[in-house]
């Protein structure tokens, strides 16, 4: 993408991000813990990254608003409708991923 001007690159990246949000919205069955286990990020991470990007640019954009944008609805509503309790297996897999990540960082 080095051959693209900054505006075009930004438009393409923004379009890809919007597509990622649509994809996640179409797959509400994929729980945040599943995303964390597999990819080390989740919908909440995307929300935090949006807030951080806004902060870097001096834009007022709070975490609740960011989560509503990412989830497509207020987070408490999404959580009540779609969030499931993590299973013991999911929690164990998440803890193993975190431990391995810490080993890599410390190693």
Summarize the structure.
By secondary structure, this protein is an all-alpha fold. It has six helices and no strands. It has one domain (29-106): SMc04008-like (SMc04008-like fold, Orthogonal Bundle), CATH 1.10.3340.
Describe this structure as you would to a colleague.
The protein has one domain: SMc04008-like fold (Orthogonal Bundle). α2 packs parallel to α6 and α3 packs across α4. Helix content is 74%, strand content 0%. 8% of the residues are buried. It has 107 residues and is an all-alpha fold. The longest helix is centred in the first third of the chain and has 21 residues. It is globular and about 45 Å long. The N and C termini lie far apart (34 Å).
């Amino acid at each position: 993408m080095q051959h693209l001007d900054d505006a075009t690159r930004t438009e393409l990246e923004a379009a890809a991000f919007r597509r990622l949000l649509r994809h996640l919205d179409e797959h509400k069955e994929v729980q945040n813990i599943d995303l964390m286990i597999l990819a080390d990020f989740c919908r909440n991470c995307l929300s935090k990254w949006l807030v951080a990007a806004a902060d870097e640019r001096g834009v007022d954009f709070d975490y609740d608003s960011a989560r509503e944008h990412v989830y497509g609805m207020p987070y408490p509503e999404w959580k009540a409708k779609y969030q499931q309790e993590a299973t013991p297996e999911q929690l164990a897999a998440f803890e193993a991923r975190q431990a391995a990540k810490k080993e890599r960082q410390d190693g």
